[in-house]
Design goal:
By secondary structure, the protein is mainly beta. The protein has one helix spanning 4-18, and strands at residues 44-49, 58-64, 69-84, 90-98, 106-114, 120-126, 140-142, 148-154, 158-164, 169-175, 179-184, 190-195, 200-205, 211-216, 233-235, 238-242, 247-252, 259-260, 264-265, 277-278, 284-287, 292-298, 310-317, 322-332, 334-337, 344-349, 354-359, 365-371, 378-383. It has one domain: Methylamine Dehydrogenase, Chain H, CATH 2.130.10. A 7-stranded antiparallel beta sheet has the order 6-5-4-3-2-1-29, with no helix packed on it. Strands 15, 16, 17, 18 and 19 form a 5-stranded antiparallel beta sheet that branches.
Length: 384
């Protein structure tokens, strides 16, 4: 006689074998490696991810803004800052490495990539002093003609280093105490930086990249009452800033001393109680030909809410100094816009690493194109 326990086990085993599903064979994946990116187009996005959950392994993702498909990726190391050359032919990454990944001896270099292929062209040694900060527009730039790469340092003492692109050597380091972020002029060999006392410092460079003069503006904003966001939208020699309380300040940096214009408000007096304020890591973008400014804002703002994601995008005319439209948006920490006759506005959210695409006219309209999962914690975007 078969014991009940053995009989039950035999039945279950038989059922398991008899009911095992027949799995269909999956097709074999074909893996391809491109030698270059697709042809250049005006909607190519360079999306920088500092990767806060694993800081030693940041990346930059190249995305086609027409369909939000990934075109390529570059590993950028720790606390990397990046920028494009003026002709968009090269991508520069200022990065940090440690001998034991997250500790040990610190070394730094500027990586030069071919923007068409993402192939590494050159590694420029750099002293360990570049700002260990989140990637923001202006922590790494070039001068107007692209001859010099300009690096924001913080040791924590602040300075700007000038690196000759062709020789691959640092030619000067310029102390900028109390000032931060790099704003190069486009038509002159000058670079400005925003200062914590409410002024702007302009440095004139000679042909070799050495400082030939320094001049500061008078105080033109109150850093305690209404400070400026450091990321600004550039149009030639003019930068358009927004303040924490929603005013716009435009500054021309071509001359020996920067020239700020009078601030003007984005909001209306009747909206004051709603307390709409800009926020995020890149709250402003500009379509240059039309003079259309886009600003990311959130309601019920308060001191300390300047990093809050936007709930609306406000559209303004920088020449008329007037707002044109208000458009709702999924949470957005930053804005970037393509140039040309058919612009698109890209609103990105750091949490979720998502991108929402709008028709970039003066009456913004969502195009129904949303992409997610482009990294961990991206904070900066540039457009081709």
């Amino acid at each position: 006689m078969i014991p009940k326990r053995v009989f039950l086990f035999s039945m279950l085993a038989g059922l398991a074998v008899g009911s095992a599903p027949a799995f269909a064979e999956l097709p074999v994946d074909t893996i391809t490696v491109r030698s270059s990116l697709p042809p250049v187009h005006p909607y190519r996005l360079y999306f920088t991810d500092v990767a806060l959950p694993h800081l030693s392994d940041g990346k930059l993702t190249v995305i086609d803004g027409r369909n939000l498909k990934v075109e390529g990726m570059v590993s950028t190391g720790a606390f990397a800052q990046n920028t494009l050359s003026p002709d968009r032919a090269e991508l520069y990454v200022m990065t940090t490495y440690y001998t034991k990944m997250n500790r040990g001896v610190r070394s730094e270099e500027i990586l030069v990539f071919d923007a068409k292929t993402l192939a590494l062209k050159q590694e420029i040694p750099y002293p360990a002093r570049h700002a260990q900060a989140l990637p923001y527009l202006g922590t790494l730039r070039t001068n107007g003609d692209g001859r010099f790469i300009l690096v924001q340092n913080a040791t924590p003492a602040t300075s700007i280093s000038v690196v000759d692109r062709q020789s691959g050597k640092m030619v000067s380091e310029i102390p900028t105490p109390g000032c931060f972020i790099v704003y190069p002029a486009q038509t002159t060999n000058r670079v400005s930086t925003l200062c914590g006392d409410g002024t702007m410092l302009t440095i004139t460079l000679d042909e070799q990249g050495n400082p030939a003069g320094k001049n500061k503006t008078a105080k033109f904003f109150d850093p305690d009452e209404d400070p400026l966001f450091s990321p600004a939208a550039q149009d030639g020699d003019t930068y358009h800033f927004v303040t924490y309380k929603g005013n716009v300040v435009s500054i021309n940096v071509a001359g020996e001393t920067a020239v700020p214009e009078k601030a003007w408000p984005l909001g209306l007096p009747s909206e004051a109680k709603q307390n709409w304020r800009p926020g995020g890591s890149q709250p402003v973008a500009l379509h240059k030909d039309s003079g259309t400014l886009y600003v990311a804002l959130h309601p019920k703002g308060f001191e300390g809410s300047h990093k809050n994601p936007a709930e609306e995008i406000w559209v303004a005319d920088v020449k008329a100094k007037a707002r044109l439209a208000r458009v709702k948006t999924p949470h957005a920490n930053g804005l970037a816009v393509s140039q040309g006759d058919a612009p698109r506005l890209f609103a990105f959210n750091t949490e979720g690493a998502s991108i929402t695409v709008f028709d970039g006219g003066r009456r913004l309209k969502q195009l129904g194109l949303v992409g997610k999962g482009f990294g961990d914690t991206p904070t900066q975007m540039e457009v081709q």
